[in-house]
Amino acid sequence: MAKFILSIDGGGIRGTIPAAILTVLEKKLSKRSKKLPLHRYFHMIAGTSTGAIIAAGLTCPKPGQPSEPAADATTLLDLYKSKGAKIFDIGLFRKIANFGGLFEERYDAGALEKILTEMLGKKTEIKDALTKVLITGYDIHARRAVFMTNADRDHERFYFWQAVRGSSAAPTYFEPALVEDLARVKHGEIPALPLIDGGVFANDPAMAAYVEGCKLGWRDDGEKIVILSLGTGSANRKIPYQQAKSWGAGGWINPANDTPLISVLMQGQSSTASYQLNKLLNVEPPSFADGATVVTTDNREKLDYFRLDAPLVGVNDALDDATPKNISDLERFGLTLAQKHDLALEEIADRLEAL
Predict the structure, then answer these.
(1) CA 9 from chain center: how many Å?
(2) Contacts of 350 (CB under 8 A, 6+ apart)
(3) Is 32 within 8 Å of 353 (Cβ atoms)?
(4) Where are the alpha helices (DSSP H) in 216-323?
(5) What is the C-alpha separation between 355 and 351, in angstroms, rounded?
(6) 316 phi and psi, to 5 degrees?
(7) 3-state class (DSSP) for residue 171
(8) What string of DSSP letters covers 72-117?
């Protein structure tokens, strides 16, 4: 029996793209059998940053309804469309006083925190998740990666909303988050971890999720791990050499340049993880086209790793362009991407329905 992992990249407002893709997958599954939430199909759902918002929404119990997920894909897509502008609202006073984010974080995290607590509740923990979940963050005190997951009993005592807040604390965009490690509280240790965006080391958390699955014994006795990995679109704007050579430290992190260093780090890791997993899980690794697995009628049943992504064309690749037009463009981009890779989604849906 195969174990199925859903992994969602980081990417700010570009989380609209995987949310749109998941609405297509939900429809495919509902046509095959009675409508079930996605956590009933996937043995683990992993997310970084904006992907953590989606992973948490799909796996965290809804406040007051412990057997139901906090959100489905349609609800999450609506969240980006209706609340995205509130999350990425710089405000006139902050813009003037802060020179657009040059001297401190560009956005106040208050709006994001309100949205997370309303959706996930204030006291629901990772250990309470409806399926295995993995959320990444980076501890700036201990200088180490943090994996908040109920796949490991030593790392499951985090409040959902705080875990997501820490995972999405992209440097220069939001200030670091203090995330309580309730297991450390129990042992009288310092409970709060100062976390920044997990995208600094695992913007694509699929490899991290794969390792946790292996730790759980999912590859023992001939079992397979099947991964559906959803990107948030890849930036394809060139960084002009003539500009970059004179940027200095400030230019590489300047929000006016769309913080190119952050984009390079996140996209570099995502492309590395997809390359590695394609070679690791697919016996006859197919080629990649524009960052996505090439799925054909001949190879679809042989694949165990499916990556859906594409260069961002016709949309703004900035992490924080939450204008109505760009969000609409991102949704359209995601639906078009799902249509382009319909064969991959059909194969995934067929296998999930057979569980």
Answers:
(1) 4
(2) 32
(3) yes
(4) 241-244, 248-253, 260-281
(5) 7
(6) -80, 130
(7) coil
(8) -HHHHHHHHHHHHHHHT---HHHHHHTTTTTSS-SS-THHHHHHHH
Q: Please list, in sequence order, all residues whose beta carbon lies within 8 angstroms of the beta carbon of residue 183, skipping any fewer than 6 positions away.
A: 154, 155, 156, 157
Q: Is 197 strand, coil or helix?
A: strand
Length of the chain: 355
> Mean pLDDT for each 10-residue chunk of the chain (355 residues)?
96 97 97 90 98 98 96 98 93 47 75 98 98 98 97 96 97 94 75 93 97 95 93 87 84 78 86 95 91 95 97 92 97 98 98 91
Q: Are 77 and 16 in contact (CB under 8 A)?
A: yes
Residue type (1 letter), 333: F
- DSSP letters of 232-243? --B------HHH
* Cβ–Cβ under 8 Å, residues 310 and 291: yes
Dist CA 53 CA 275 (whole Å): 25
Amino acid at 98: N
Closest-CA residue to 46 (of 153, 169, 132):
132
| Residue 194, H or E segment | strand 192-197
